[in-house]
Each structure stands twice: as structure tokens, then as C-alpha cells.
Amino acid sequence: MALGSSFYFIYQVQKEQLINYTLKSNYAYANKLASATNNFLESALQQLAYSAKIIEADLDNNVLLENEVKRLHLQTNSFNSVVINKNGITVATSPYLPNVLGVTSSSIGAQQALAKKQPLISYPYVSPEGNLIIFITSPLFDKNSEYIGYIGGTLYLKESNILSELLEQGYYSGGSHIYVVDANKKLIYHPDSKRIGEQVNNNSVITAVLSGSLGKELVKNSENVSMLAGYAPVKIANWGVVVQRPLKDTLAYLDVLGVEIFKRITPLVLVMLLATALLAHFISRPLKLLADSSHLLNDENSANKLKDIKSWYFEAQQLKAAMLEGVNILQSQMGQLRQDALTDPLTGAHNRRSLNILLEKLMDKHIPFAVLEIDIDFFKRVNDTFGHDVGDEVLKALTEVIQKVSRKHDIVARTGGEEFLLVLPNEDSDSAFVIAERLRKQVKATSMPKVGHITISIGIAIWPQHNDDIDQVYKCADKALYHAKETGRNKTVIASLN
Questions:
Q1: Residue 118 pLDDT > 70, yes or no?
Q2: pLDDT at 420
Q3: What is the SS3 assignment for the chain?
Q4: Which of 85, 106, 216, 342 lies in disulfide reach of 354, CB 3.0 to 4.6 Å?
Q5: Burial letters for 195-231: b for 16+ Cβ neighbours within 10 Å, e otherwise?
Q6: Residue with more model confidence, 334 or 480
Q7: Which is nearest to 460 in space by CA: 482, 498, 432, 487?
Q8: Bridge partners of 141?
Q9: pTM higher than 0.70, yes or no?
Q10: What's residue 149's pLDDT?
């Protein structure tokens, strides 16, 4: 009975810990993806608003309109297509769509944009060409501030785009997967593309996330499968991001371990029963100690405490070994879950969540720091020419170069596809510029796998010199990076204090 109860309790503790840590990990990852998606949509709206200002300066310049839609379509890969609408008529497109030009726009997204007359992220709908799309628009106004149309970009939900690439970043191991729903509970992203556009009802997680809640829970999906789900809202579009893993897959290894432990314990139980009459006192003591320590399995020192228990006979030693094996597996899985929640899975650098935690510590201690926003020049060409696998190797190699140039207390984080942040505590603009230039030159001199030499552009901002708000510091660094890109790339620019 002592052996059986100890085994059962170990199993239940491990089961509970695995479920809790899987839920926490899924919640952290959903929150990270929701934040990244929100940032992408904000960026897309900002790009369209910036182009709108350019277009409004010369509304009748058709060459300008054509060049602007091409630039917006080809420069960032944010949209599958870009259109400009004036007075209800499509006047420019990229890619070039002759059957659309000069025609009154009749799509659902176009009608929504013309009716709203303000920045818009549309509901999913089927375009006249038969594509399931989301339409993102920014209004156009003439010199008298009269609304005359919009510039808009499309995301083809069943085709590859920057949003689908963002959501596909390597979180499908062990049965885990991600899906995104819009305000009408329609799937706008799912690893099974056939399900995109499907409406999902009777799901408490979807109801919760679309109400604006963040959280985690054990839920049964539409196929009546128990899932460990973490969820977070994309507030700018009223979408919901859900990361989930089947409960069965989460506990599968634990079940195998339980069977193995049970196989080892069974013969020992038979021996113990035969010897109980003579050895009851001596046998029960170490077993009692093992049972008493089983509730400490989530303690980092639990293995050492188990080792300190004196098990003078074979059966107790075997049980102790089995418990130690379980503790080691549990601690390993817990450590891996913590690591996954705080690091970028591709490069091993800090992720956005880990970066925020570290920066909060610096700001709490009033330690000034420089933020270096780093972006690979023409990285899309690397992926298009050599493939995403080679692109991933370039990202890993760049991370190694950044880590070699940085010091022990510096923070290296990957915040986007080819975007990195290097945080330098106790550095001002001048010293940060010197370090940034050293990094830029080192990257330029380093031969990357299969690709050869690449260059990077760097934008620098200082906390709290540029702003007390870290989000504003990010924006300052981003503007400096954008200026570096616009003025030739392969350079370092310090953000202005204006």
C-alpha cells in the first residue's frame, strides 16, 4: 500500500505540474503571438497612412500613384496586393490588375472602407477573384480635407504572407498548434488551410478571447478532444490567438514512464509482502520518508532531498531510483517549458517577453541603457534566393556575431523575422554608436553560410534620454533604423531628440 500510494501520488503530482506548465507556456506563447500580430497590423496601418500622406500631396499624379502601390507592395511583403481608390474607382494596383483599373469598386472590403472613411481592418470576405481576404485601408483626403477614397492592402488568408509566416514560427511539436479567429468566430488562420474561413461555435476559449480576456484553460475542441489552451486577444482587430496542445499528447510520456515504474515496482512489492512480518519496521521507515517527500517534486532541490534519504535495502533503493528518474524528467520538462517561454526557438536569443522582463528590471533600478534596433538589409532576397532554411541559418549566424560583440551584461533579443535588439546598459549615444559600428563592420566582414556577406542597418535610441516611456524609445530607434534604410542601408543612425 505504501509503494502503491507513493507511485500514484508521484504520478498525480507530475501530471498536475505538466498540465500547469503546458498551460502557462501556451498562454505565454499566445500572448507573444497576439502582441506580434497586433504590432504587425499597427505597422501595416502605419505604412498605409504614410503612403496616404505621399499620395495626398499630388493626387492627380498617376505615375506617383503607380510607384507608391509598387513600393508598398514590394518593399515589405506586408500585403499580397495594394490598391488605390479615388471617388469609388480603382486607379492603381500592385500587382497590375487591368480588369480592376478604372472600375467602380464593389467588393465588401471596398464598400466597408468607403462607408467608414477611416483606417479599417475588414472582416474576412471572398473577393471578386475568389480569394478569401482581409482588407486593410487608410483614407485619402484632398487639400480641402474632403474624403475622396483610400489606399488599401490585402492579406490572402489561404496564401503565404507575412502574417501567416509570423504565426507559423515553429510551434507545432508534440501536437501543439495555433489558430486565430476574428470577431465573428471565423478561423482566419489555422495550420490546416482547409479550415480557414470556417466558423467555430460552442467553444468557451473563443468566447473568452473575443471578449478581450487573456487566459488559459482545459477545454474540449469542436472534435470533442481535450486541449490545454492559452489565449490572448489582438485588440486592434478584435481577433483572438489560441495556442493549444492535446491533453493526451501532453501526458503520453508520463503514462509510459508510469508503466515502466510500475513494472519495476511489481516484483519488489511481492518480495516486500513476504518479508513484511519480520521487517515491517525497517521497511516502512524509508518508504514513509519517500512518500513524505513526494509532494516536493516541484522543488528544485527535490532530487538532493531524495538522495539524502537512506534506503538500506534493494526494494527501497529501486523505488528511490524510480522517483529520482521521475523528478529529473519533471524538472527537465519544467526547465524546457520555462526556456521556451523566454527564448526565441530559432536563435536562442531572448524573445520579446524575456526582453520586457529584463528591461523592467533595469528601469526599476534607474539604470540608463541604449537600444540598438538591428535589421538585415535585403533579407527577403536571401529567403527568396536561397530558401527559408538558409535564411534561418543566417539568422543563427547573425545572433552569434551579435553575442560575440556584446558584453556579458548586454541583452540580445530577436523581436521579429530579421529584426534584433541589442540593449547596452550604462551606455550613452556616443559609446553605443561605437559599439554599433563595431558590430556593423563585424557583420559585413563575416561570411554567412551559403549566402556570403550580408549587411545590417542599426537605429539607436537611449532610455531615458529620448523618452521615459520604453515604447516611445522603441519608436525612436525604429525611426532611426528606417532613416538608415532610406539613406542607403549598411549604416548606423542615432535617433534625434526632437
A1: yes
A2: 95
A3: CHHHHHHHHHHHHHHHHHHHHHHHHHHHHHHHHHHHHHHHHHHHHHHHHHHHHHHHCCCCCHHHHHHHHHHHHHHHCCCCEEEEEECCEEEEEECCCCCCCCCECCCHHHHHHHHHCCCEECCCEECCCCCEEEEEEEEEECCCCCEEEEEEEEEECCCCCHHHHHHCCCCCHHHCEEEEECCCCEEEECCCHHHCCCECCCCHHHHHHHCCCCEEEEEECCCCCEEEEEEEEECCCCEEEEEEEEHHHHHHHHHHHHHHHHHHHHHHHHHHHHHHHHHHHHHHHHHHHHHHHHHHCCCCCHHHHHHHCCCCCHHHHHHHHHHHHHHHHHHHHHHHHHHHHHECCCCCCECHHHHHHHHHHHHHCCCCEEEEEEEECCHHHHHHHHCHHHHHHHHHHHHHHHHHHCCCCCEEEECCCCEEEEEEECCCHHHHHHHHHHHHHHHHHCEECCCEECCEEEEEEEECCCCCCHHHHHHHHHHHHHHHHHCCCCCEEECCCC
A4: 342
A5: ebbeebeebebbebbbeeebebeebebeeeeebbbbb
A6: 480
A7: 432
A8: 147
A9: no
A10: 94
Mean pLDDT throughout 46-63? Answer: 92
Side-by-side strand order, sheet with 187-189: 187-189, 177-181, 239-246, 226-234, 215-220
Task: Calculate mean pLDDT across residues 69-92.
Answer: 90
Asked if pLDDT for residue 363 goes beyond 60, the answer is yes
Give CA–CA dist 429/435, Å, rounded.
10
Mean pLDDT (the chain) is 85
Q: 177: exposed, middle or buried (C-beta count within 10 Å: 0-12, 13-18, 19+)?
A: middle
Q: What are the CB-based long-range contacts (under 8 Å, 24+) for 189-196?
A: 189/157, 189/163, 189/164, 193/158, 196/132, 196/157, 196/158
Alpha-carbon distance of 206 to 268, in angstroms, equals 49
The residue type found at 378 is F
Say if residue 131 is exposed, middle or buried (CB neighbours under 10 Å; 0-12, 13-18, 19+): middle
Q: Would you mind telling me the total number of residues written for the chain in this entry?
A: 498
Return the bridge partners of 350, or none: 343, 413
Residue where the block lists cell 472600375: 103
CA atoms within 13 A on the CB side of 68: 26
Q: Which of 419, 392, 410, 389 is nearest to 482 (CA)?
A: 419
Give residue-wise pLDDT tens across range 159-215. 877 777 777 765 555 667 888 999 999 988 888 888 888 888 888 899 999 999 999
